[in-house]
Amino acid sequence: MTLIAPSILSANFATLGEDIKEVEQAGADWIHIDVMDGHFVPNLTFGPVVVNAIRPYTKLTFDVHLMIEQPERYITAFAQAGADRITVHAEACVHLHRVVHMIREAGLPAGVALNPATPVNVLENVLDDLDLVLIMTVNPGFGGQAFIPQSIAKLRALRTLLQSSGRTDIHVQVDGGINTQTSAMVREAGANVLVAGSSVFTQKDRTAAIAALR
């Protein structure tokens, strides 16, 4: 089953709670929350206070993606604010194994994200502790970017790694440039969780938009 996780980076911030309600009613599975610090990526977005503020608007899973330096400083805060799962970047963690275990100790499923230029073999020593791997299909930092075609080969390499490791239960998530054309390609290559921003939130018929991505 393909899960659709609309990214609130493309929502209307003035009516964020209502936008989240609408995509839930339209059939979204998770709500993806892109947290950026202006250091690891060149943009600033949300903190734990925003996550706490929107938590009452939906019962959907809050999929928090920390695009920040030293994410270990904020894992507890996001968990307490209402995150249901947390993903950190391998590139942002000096001690990735330790950070993954911090997420698990907070009682949440742990994910690791990889930037476009980061090979999948960096995951080999933490696979046993992961619930999700996020393949960035654009360079992180801004919504609305074009899909990087080389991501398909990377997804296939990840699928091979998961199969050889006996961890085919791990969610494979993609984020960046996902639309009705690219969704079919990434699903064929092994992705089962699709993060979509503008291709959901900017559409008049969000139910049809979500259905088209599956």
TrEMBL record:
Residue positions binding a divalent metal cation: H32, D34, H65, D175
The entry's keywords: Carbohydrate metabolism, Cobalt, Isomerase, Manganese, Metal-binding, Zinc
Membrane-spanning intervals of the chain: none
GO BP field: pentose catabolic process; pentose-phosphate shunt
Pathway the protein contributes to: Carbohydrate degradation
Entry keyword annotation includes Zinc-finger: no
This protein's name: Ribulose-phosphate 3-epimerase
Domain of life where this protein originates: Bacteria
Note on cofactor: Binds 1 divalent metal cation per subunit.
Active site: D34 (proton acceptor), D175 (proton donor)
SUPFAM superfamilies xref list: Ribulose-phoshate binding barrel
Cofactor(s) needed for function: Zn(2+); Fe(2+); Co(2+); a divalent metal cation
InterPro entries listed in its UniProt record: Aldolase_TIM, Ribul_P_3_epim, Ribul_P_3_epim-like, RibuloseP-bd_barrel
Binding site for substrate: S7, H65, G141, F142, G143, G144, D175, G176, G177, G197, S198
PROSITE patterns in UniProt: RIBUL_P_3_EPIMER_1, RIBUL_P_3_EPIMER_2
Biological function: Catalyzes the reversible epimerization of D-ribulose 5-phosphate to D-xylulose 5-phosphate.
Reaction(s) catalysed (UniProt annotation): D-ribulose 5-phosphate = D-xylulose 5-phosphate
Cellular component, GO, one term: cytoplasm
Enzyme Commission number(s) of this protein: 5.1.3.1
Pfam families per record: Ribul_P_3_epim
